[in-house]
Amino acid sequence: MTGQYDVIVVGAGPAGLSAALYAARAKYRVLVLEKEKMGGQITITSEIVNYPGVEKTNGTELTEQMRRQAEAFGAEFAMAEVKGIDLAGEIKTVKTDKGEYQAPGIVLAVGANPRKLGFAGEREYQGRGVAYCATCDGEFFTGMDVFVIGGGFAAAEEAVFLTKYAKKVTIIVREEDFTCAKAVADKAKNHEKIEVHYETEILEAAGDGLLRRARFKDNASGKEWSYEAPEGTSFGIFVFAGYVPDTKWLKGLVELDGQGYIITDRDQKTSVDGVYAAGDVCVKNLRQVVTAVSDGAVAATSLERYVSETYEKPELAGWKADIEEKRTMNVEHASVSDLNDGVLITGEMKSQLADLFSGLQNRIVVEGVLDGSPMADEMEQFLDELGDISDMVECRSRRESDKVKEDEEYPVLRILKENGDETGIRFYAVPGGHEFNSFVLAIYNAAGPGQPITDEERTRIGKLKGPVNIKIAVSLSCTMCPATVMAAGRIAAEHDGVEAWAFDLAHYPEMKEKYQIMSVPCTIINDGKVVFGRKTVDDLLTVLEES
Q1: Catalytic member of 6, 86, 97, 136
Q2: Is the pTM value of this prediction over 0.85?
Q3: CATH 3.50.50.60 boundaries in the chain
Q4: Which of 27, 205, 318, 454 is 20 to 30 A from 61 via CA?
Q5: Is 522 a catalytic residue?
Q6: What is the pLDDT of residues 344-364, one digit of tens each?
Q7: Contact 51, 289 (CB under 8 A)
Q8: What is the architecture of the domain spanning 130-239?
Q9: 395 is known as an active-site residue
Q10: 80-128 pLDDT, tens per residue?
Q11: Which of 133, 395, 481, 522 is catalytic?
Q12: What span, in angstroms and rounded, lies between the C-alpha atoms of 293 and 455?
């Protein structure tokens, strides 16, 4: 797949959405690429009260409105992970796992990822007590003690959020005081369920499979102290120690500073003509939503002038003519990334799905095996609405009394071939929240043509020795889970011996207990090997090859 655009924006956080809005409003053909979740890191923020003109909102609501604004001016969106970028020449090429896209102008708004501290036990207990996202994993620590590591805005805000679940929250601040705004810090300092230790750092996390104890050092006195969970219980450590820019793949392509942040001028231009950067990935003093959207606006307006001047070059006459024709056509592209969260399928969502399903190569069956549980009732409602959309997707259900096999589990949504054979893809969950996209893509992958994969990945999938069962424990509020579910489903669609089963962990406490799951996504291979964190097709293949 190759798409031609005037501007390609990499990243759909506030900076990328702002750039898309301004560039699309200037009548340019704009594509926004996002690998995980529209809205970026800010979507995990439960309360925003310092965005001018908006008295109170949350990260998801604010960025969803930004996306809709950009879309209203014609910006297109695609869920795709950038694998490489060619910045040589007037026309740049962005290579993704969905194909290649080209444009004379690029905006890099790739943001940053949570920073790991490197204390003893951090890696070993990630997913089993050590976590980095309060929204994703907070519920797993209900009634437990929780430690929050960090003294910035995220640490203070997320510590308050975690009091909804935790019995007590202890904040470990390395400095003499919080480094964020006083109003934010005071909420944490004055909360009855929060205790703060200043000039203190974590040295070690330890346990016996689950997190049982931690060791700290008071740097003011030089004394060490420990915490040990009550017998038979565990506790949580949430690390909010800032972010690391997502720029390893850009090294040698654009100029970076010593910490990996992109260096730009006052117009957000990088060291490469036609390439601009915006948001938290840039060298800057303040990383907030308001500065991110400012960066995006500046980058887009500066890029507008650059692209206009570039099109005056005689050698780009053909390209300019092609782009102008595409703008005139104003083709609407249905994208599963545009779908709203929730169990019920709105009219707008049905219209988008109808376009997507019309391109399926084979008919597919979604079958619900249902019992008398509330989740089964929701599944049945979901199937009723999904079944009205396209003849290419047949929906049906049967009750537990009609089980085909004695050991058949339910309630479950099974994606089947037209003849009733298993594709290997199942959802032990109602595909709501962030999992709606992964469910729709599972259908797309099973029916064909499927998400593009590289020749190397296809070869590696073919070499897998089945049977392989992949269980993915998810939370519908987790922004990282869908990528792993999509990756597993893509592999299962390509290999008859691979099963990909997604479980909403809220309904399967026995799974949480059996595999000692304290963070999602959690991937279980053949009921044995357990790995945590977001996984791409390449990542998951590596895990399978090592199993």
Answers
A1: 136
A2: no
A3: 2-113+245-329, 130-239
A4: 27
A5: no
A6: 466 667 777 888 888 899 999
A7: yes
A8: 3-Layer(bba) Sandwich (3.50)
A9: no
A10: 888 889 998 899 999 988 788 999 999 999 988 778 899 999 989 988 8
A11: 133
A12: 38
